[in-house]
């Protein structure tokens, strides 16, 4: 098998795993809507949203381990991984009782959702090891196994009528039981950990960058809920389906490129940005040609008339796709504050939406596009400065850490 065909097979495998994970995540509320009461369905949706936010720690751990592994080879990550799991568990132990009181959530179901989240966070270690070693087919298997553990148990419990608590109990069990499988997939007999240990700060930086990407890409949806009438905010939510599609469609490129980015491979950066940008151009062109169909598929025939806005939503997702490649490149290179432009852009967007933007669907949509462009421009400047510095002088000492 040639190198190109090997990369292609790895890309297909990782893409398939991502599709499976997204499909299972989508199936959970769909099955829940048919099996649960309105109150239990609302509780399930709330718990899923909370665990998705907490699950940022898993992605941060995975990226930090992958970058460290790509740069230093086999080395000890157990201490930082354990610390990440313990901090997440502590944060959940502090936050979930407050959520139970304020949001009127069932206690046992909330505890089970927390257990499942801790299992997902722990999985980030082994996924990161496989990604950093560029063992993408085992990584794809691991992603599929984790998706099955994270969502499959909940889907099965709901389908068999176990109710909210029973489904979450089965989901917590499967989320924990898949961890030994991931350990076996990542294990490489005969390879000793001899490199520099992973610094806990690397995981914190990676998690912060992941959280910033989540916040800035969802800011428009939150602002639409705040400033638009309910019918318009519902239509806006349909439009964001196109944004998320354009954003996540090329995510496999970043997954495959991250180990090379950690090794300061400039060609990998250029190719990654080019591929993600090209994918975005295709999706935006498709939205321009068939905007009505895109809205119809995303939300039903009632929203087809909004097709003229489809290119705006798709363009926002496409710009964020390129931006996220650059942010990952920054953290892989050891940048100290890789997510700073994203936090500033999100805060600025909220302020402009409050004071300046027309409080209409189009106003928020164009504001989101402008925010993505500003954040991309600022990050591009920082990336350019870093690349010029790496040519004219030695890398800063802190950049020897794997900060994702």
From TrEMBL:
Transmembrane segments: 41-68, 80-101, 107-127, 139-160, 166-186, 198-223, 235-259, 271-297, 309-327, 339-357, 363-385
Source species, domain of life: Bacteria
UniProt keyword annotations, A-Z: Membrane, Transmembrane, Transmembrane helix
Protein's name in the database: Polysaccharide biosynthesis protein
